[in-house]
């Protein structure tokens, strides 16, 4: 039998489910095991997943930027963050949290100002390299109960006076004393008509003695007068006065003790060239009475004190000093460690068997307990 021939016009039998295609229709090629509908869904899922990933990435980057641009807050005793609402309510005339932001250029200008004063007045001749000066800033004594006398004047509380007495024992010239005797004492002026008592404005004729009372025992002990010429808003003038003496080489190896109002301490520290980069927090914890800020100025400290290593060049390993000497500022927050019971015990208020009268630390005003 001869093989059957196929006419070109004839169609081969169609398989089940296969549709006949007209000669003039374009051929549509399909992927094996798939269909147009399946591939379209896969593409949609891919685009949707990719879009979600992009959105999540943008959100993460935005969050990181916000965190980086938000100033870190100073932490007080127990590490509690400062309360912005408290600051706005109790101190409406002070710097708002939004204003307390720091500019690297501003601090650079302050440091350059101190350097220029030094070069202008002495050309560095009267200042030795590694000359050190420290400014010690703390808030006023405790005011539990808002102690106000008949004239409307504000004072320390009973425990606040005990704290002031304790503070005087921390400074002295003996090696056992925690800190050196201050060379100068500054307290915020007693004349502050915009002070607040219990959230209310005090009388314009009243005075606030807390900062002076905080330093009074130390003043008596060391025989130093308290400079109370500066008030809120005078931070620039106070800083200029201090910078002048530092730049003249008059404060090498000396300590300056300042008692200031709590919410304005960061502003004063800024004027003195100390911000977060140098070690001073952005805010002072409203509830912290037992902490103080130290600002140390060092003239031309060595670049590094690290020992030379064999695997680096001698030039890189050198500490050395700068070709152009300048001041460097270092900030630090310390605790005063005031314990009323411990201090009262040392004063003799809790002898064996008890005592009918306490407050013996009052008799030691300005003296060691």
TrEMBL record:
Stretches for region Disordered: 1-39
What does the UniProt keyword field contain? Membrane, Transmembrane, Transmembrane helix
Amino acid composition bias (Polar residues), ranges on this chain? 1-10
Bias-annotated ranges (Basic and acidic residues): 21-30
Membrane-spanning ranges: 46-68
Record-given protein name: Uncharacterized protein
């Amino acid at each position: 039998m001869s093989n059957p021939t196929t006419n070109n016009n004839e169609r081969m039998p169609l398989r089940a489910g296969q549709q006949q295609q007209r000669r003039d229709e374009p051929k549509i090629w399909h992927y094996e095991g798939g269909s147009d509908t399946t591939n379209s869904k896969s593409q949609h899922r891919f685009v949707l997943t990719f879009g979600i990933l992009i959105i999540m990435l943008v959100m993460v980057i935005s969050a990181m930027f916000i965190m980086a641009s938000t100033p870190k807050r100073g932490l007080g005793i127990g590490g509690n963050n400062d309360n912005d609402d408290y600051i706005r309510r109790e101190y409406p005339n002070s710097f708002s949290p939004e204003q307390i932001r720091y500019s690297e250029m501003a601090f650079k200008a302050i440091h350059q100002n101190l350097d220029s004063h030094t070069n202008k007045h002495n050309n560095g001749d009267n200042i030795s390299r590694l000359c050190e000066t420290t400014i010690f800033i703390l808030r006023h004594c405790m005011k539990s109960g808002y102690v106000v006398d008949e004239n409307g004047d504000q004072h320390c509380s009973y425990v606040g006076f005990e704290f002031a007495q304790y503070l005087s024992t921390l400074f002295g010239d003996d090696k056992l004393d925690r800190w050196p005797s201050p060379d100068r004492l500054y307290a915020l002026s007693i004349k502050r008509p915009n002070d607040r008592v219990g959230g209310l404005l005090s009388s314009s004729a009243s005075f606030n003695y807390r900062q002076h009372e905080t330093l009074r025992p130390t003043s008596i002990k060391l025989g130093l007068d308290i400079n109370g010429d500066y008030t809120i808003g005078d931070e620039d003038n106070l800083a200029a006065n201090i910078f002048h003496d530092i730049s003249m080489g008059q404060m090498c190896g000396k300590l300056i003790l300042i008692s200031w109002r709590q919410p304005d301490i960061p502003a004063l520290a800024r004027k003195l060239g100390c911000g977060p980069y140098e070690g001073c927090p952005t805010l002072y914890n409203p509830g912290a009475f037992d902490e103080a800020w130290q600002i140390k100025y060092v003239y031309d400290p060595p670049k590094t004190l690290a020992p030379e290593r064999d695997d680096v060049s001698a030039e890189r390993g050198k500490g050395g000093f700068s070709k152009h000497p300048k001041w460097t500022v270092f900030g630090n927050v310390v605790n005063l460690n005031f314990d009323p019971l411990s201090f009262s015990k040392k004063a003799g208020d809790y002898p064996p068997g008890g005592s009918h009268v306490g407050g013996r630390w009052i008799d030691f005003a300005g003296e060691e307990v």
